[in-house]
Specification:
The protein is mostly beta strands and 252 residues long. It has one domain (9-29, 39-251): Porin, CATH 2.40.160.40. The chain is built from one helix and 15 strands, in the order αβββββββββββββββ. Residues 1-28 form the signal peptide.
């Protein structure tokens, strides 16, 4: 959902303070050597969105992680149409049975969202999630329903191959929106990884458009500190728009 919005400095400042105070769809990860809890990692992701019938857009996302804490800041801009800044925070609880990840996000225009996601199991694991917003204008960069539940299953077929299947479905707005994802990750030595994400969607978006159906395909190649991601998305965010996206990023 998106409409022209106005930046609210007090909301952004409040969320910035929250993100800076030490104190969310969880994914299983391969065993790795534990790093010092005070070691900071950053990821910068600029993206370009080419729309079929609307103005093109850009987005820049900066993500910071230290220990179990993750904070991020992003800026989305669509020429002469929509502009939005956002801030977010999540924390990962690690338990003997898996992970629990609560998160909070806010954006200019008064948007606030929260989610709770879980992974139950290790080599084979259940996926579950729940999310809610205050229904204020927001351009959804997850491209799944915002007020929804998520259920799925994932597995490490081998040390190199990881697959997961899940569905995110609206459970609040009675739109029938649902997106089913099938993801395959191929892990290679030297921090290389190939990810393919195939998805199918259906549901109602804009009342003037009615129900839509579409598919999407995303591909990401990670190597060392860098990655490139490309996606083709029909009926993006349940609109009548088709979209191509490309992202280039790096870790440090």
């Amino acid at each position: 959902m998106k409409t022209t919005s106005r930046t609210e400095p007090r909301l952004v400042a409040l969320l910035a303070l929250l993100c800076l105070t030490p104190s969310c769809f969880a994914q299983a990860t391969s065993p790795e050597v534990q790093e010092p809890q005070d070691h900071w990692h950053f990821k910068v992701t600029p993206s370009y969105h080419q729309n079929k019938q609307e103005a093109n857009a850009t987005d820049v996302n900066v993500r910071a992680r230290v220990g179990k804490h993750v904070m991020w800041f992003g800026q989305y801009d669509q020429a002469d149409t929509f502009h939005q800044s956002r801030l977010g925070y999540e924390y990962t609880f690690t338990t003997p049975w898996g992970q629990l990840v609560p998160s909070l996000q806010g954006a200019s225009g008064g948007f606030v969202g929260r989610s709770l996601n879980a992974q139950w199991g290790q080599s084979t694991y259940l996926i579950a999630g729940w999310s809610r917003t205050n229904l204020r204008p927001y351009y959804n960069l997850n491209f799944d329903p915002n007020d929804a539940i998520t259920l799925g299953l994932g597995s490490w077929l081998s040390p190199e191959h990881q697959v997961s299947l899940w569905r995110t479905q609206d459970d609040r707005m009675h739109t029938g929106q649902q997106v089913t994802h099938l993801t395959w990750r191929y892990h290679l030595p030297d921090r290389k990884r190939l990810t393919l994400d195939v998805a199918s969607k259906s549901g109602r978006g804009d009342p003037d458009i009615g129900a839509v159906k579409g598919q999407s395909l995303g591909m990401t190649w990670d190597w060392s500190r860098y990655f490139v991601r490309m996606a083709w998305d029909q009926k993006v965010n349940f609109t009548d728009q088709d979209q191509k996206r490309v992202s280039l990023g790096w870790h440090y």
